[in-house]
Structure formats: structure tokens, C-alpha cells
């Protein structure tokens, strides 16, 4: 069972996750450069501290890169705003119309139809309901595909807003969760993320076996992961 701890190294708070893996893995994650170390249970805190100190220059360069990264401001769901949908930028057009609310893409615009006088929160709910269905329609076949590739039972999957992850895998419940924000990302990023999460039903850690699986099935996964994390971040915060 994983044991999460924290270790202070200089000005940096390091999250430590103990796992049954062979080697220590150090990562720096957006949006603010969170530092995370996955380490075998036998590795001491001092060994982890030394590993962090040794790579401090690289850690700070990564954190500086994330600090300079473009972010979208909070959306008000009004005409003229730019919204990303599966990696493509669209201008939003709000149409005041009685009847059922809806969202559709027309050319280079996303049209949101809603009753006159509805407030910003209502428009957001309508928009996110559409995003959720769009992501479900795109991710469903990918979940089926990667379950067949890995020869595992097709997991259930759900979609929710998450502040710290692009996706998660719950092996015990045989379920994966996808971040609603993935609707903004290019299709290759979604494919990579689903492949990544389904692979955890075979290998729970991010160790050598996991990397071998990813290399086999998506040779460019590191490039795609970098693209996922370098796309403009929204005003909320997540990583993978």
C-alpha cells in the first residue's frame, strides 16, 4: 500500500510516495512545479533528500517553465470568448433563445443557445454538460480499444472536474476517471491519457514495466505527455 509523506528540502516541499518499485523516480508537475518522488520502501529520507538536492537545478528550471506558461483566465461564457475544444480554438457565440438550452459547433464558432437573462453559472453548466458528453463519446471507444490491447476487462469510466490530475485509475473498483478539462486538449493527448490509465490495471506503478508498456503501444508518449502539459492551462490546476 502506498504511503504518502512530505519532506522539506530547502524551500521546496517534496511529496514522497512509497511504492514497490525498483528505482527512485523524481518528477516536477504543472501548474506550479509540484515535486513528487516515488521511491521503494527501503530508500531512506536522506537518500531522497540527496536525490532532490542533486537535481535541484533541473527542478528549478522546470518550475520556472511552468510559472511562465500561458493560462486562460476564468471564462464568463459570453460572446467573443475563445474556448478550446479538442485542441482547436473556437469563438463563443451566445444566442438568446427560448426553449431548451444547447451547444453546437458551427464553422469556427461554438454556439451556446440559452434563455434570455440566464446568468453566467447557468451558461457554464450548459457548456460543461455538452463538454462532458463530447468527452464521453470520444473516450468511450478509446477505453474499449485499450482494454482489448491490454487484454483486461473493459473498465468503467467517469468524467469529473479534478484539480490535481488529468486522470486516475482505481484498480480495486476497476474504474478510471478522466478530467473534464481534457475536452480542451488534442485527441492524441486523450488517447495517451486513456492508454496510460488502462495500463495501470496491469502495472500499478510508473516503474520500468509501465514505461515498457507505454513505449510498446505509444512510442511517442513522452512527446504527447509534454504537449498535454504544455498546452495553455485553464484557470483551474491539474497535472499528470
Automatic annotation (TrEMBL):
- What's a Pfam family this protein contains? YgjP-like
What region holds the YgjP-like metallopeptidase domain?
26-230
InterPro entries per the UniProt record, alphabetical: UTP_pyrophosphatase-like, YgjP-like_metallopeptidase
The name on file for this protein is DUF45 domain-containing protein
Q: Which organism is it from?
A: Acetobacter ghanensis
Taxonomic lineage is: Bacteria, Pseudomonadati, Pseudomonadota, Alphaproteobacteria, Acetobacterales
Amino acid at each position: 500500500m502506498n504511503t504518502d509523506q512530505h519532506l522539506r528540502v530547502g524551500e521546496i516541499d517534496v511529496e514522497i510516495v512509497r511504492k514497490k518499485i525498483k528505482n527512485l523516480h523524481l518528477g516536477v508537475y504543472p501548474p506550479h512545479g509540484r515535486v513528487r518522488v516515488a521511491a521503494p520502501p527501503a530508500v531512506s529520507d536522506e537518500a531522497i533528500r540527496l536525490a532532490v538536492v542533486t537535481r535541484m537545478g533541473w527542478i528549478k528550471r522546470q518550475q520556472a517553465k511552468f510559472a511562465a506558461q500561458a493560462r486562460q483566465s476564468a471564462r464568463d461564457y459570453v460572446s467573443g470568448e475563445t474556448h478550446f475544444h479538442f485542441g482547436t480554438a473556437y469563438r463563443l457565440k451566445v444566442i438568446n433563445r427560448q426553449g431548451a438550452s444547447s451547444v453546437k459547433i458551427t464553422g469556427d464558432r461554438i454556439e451556446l443557445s440559452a434563455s434570455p437573462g440566464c446568468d453566467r453559472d447557468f451558461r457554464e453548466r450548459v457548456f460543461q454538460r455538452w463538454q462532458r458528453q463530447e468527452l464521453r463519446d470520444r473516450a468511450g471507444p478509446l477505453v474499449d480499444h485499450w482494454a482489448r490491447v491490454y487484454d483486461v476487462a473493459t473498465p468503467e469510466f467517469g468524467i469529473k472536474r479534478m484539480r490535481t490530475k488529468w486522470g486516475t485509475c482505481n484498480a480495486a473498483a476497476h474504474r478510471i476517471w478522466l478530467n473534464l478539462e481534457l475536452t480542451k486538449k488534442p485527441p492524441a493527448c486523450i488517447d495517451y491519457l486513456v492508454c496510460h490509465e488502462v495500463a495501470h490495471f496491469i502495472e500499478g506503478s510508473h516503474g520500468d514495466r509501465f514505461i515498457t508498456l507505454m513505449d510498446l503501444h505509444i512510442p511517442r508518449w513522452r512527446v504527447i505527455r509534454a504537449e498535454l502539459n504544455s498546452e495553455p492551462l485553464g484557470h483551474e490546476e491539474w497535472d499528470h
